[in-house]
TrEMBL record:
Protein name: Thiol-disulfide oxidoreductase
Transmembrane segments: none
GO molecular function: protein-disulfide reductase activity
Length: 142
């Protein structure tokens, strides 16, 4: 069985933080896993405590946004910026989605928040995180 990486092993690696109780978020993680053939993205549920252990406290918004977060090169991104930066790490053709970063951030985040606000209606709520396959498990942080 593959072991989970620890916080030390994540230094300098891109990490996707997602809502572990959101079906929409878990589905999004599945898409990223499937289309990140380089397997260099790591994942942690917002509820895991990894965010607080990895990211400098000054960068963590209080309260945490109702959002996916992406930590890359020492910087934490939220909402549409996080989603589009993650898209840039995906295989072609999904990587093309990152071009939407040319749209003004305020409009992108308006659309993002609209989806985020309705995500439980779109895909439901779960009481626990998804169980990754043994191959995927090495990319998740507890």
């Amino acid at each position: 069985m593959t072991s989970l990486p620890d916080i030390q092993q994540l230094q300098g690696r891109p990490v996707v933080f997602y809502d572990g109780t959101c079906g929409f978020c878990q589905g999004s993680v599945q898409v990223v896993l499937k289309h990140n053939k380089r397997q260099h993205l790591y994942f942690a549920a917002l509820q895991s405590g990894v965010l607080e252990a990895l990211v400098p406290k000054a960068q963590i918004p209080d309260p945490l946004p109702d959002s996916i977060l992406f930590y890359e090169n020492g910087k934490l991104y939220a909402e549409s910026e996080a989603a589009l930066r993650i898209a840039g790490h995906l295989d072609f053709p999904l990587s093309i989605l990152s071009i939407f970063r040319i749209i003004p951030l305020s409009f992108r985040n308006f659309v993002y928040r609209l989806v985020a606000k309705n995500r439980y209606r779109i895909a439901g709520r779960t009481e626990s995180c998804m169980l990754p396959s043994p191959e995927q498990r090495a990319r998740f942080v507890a």
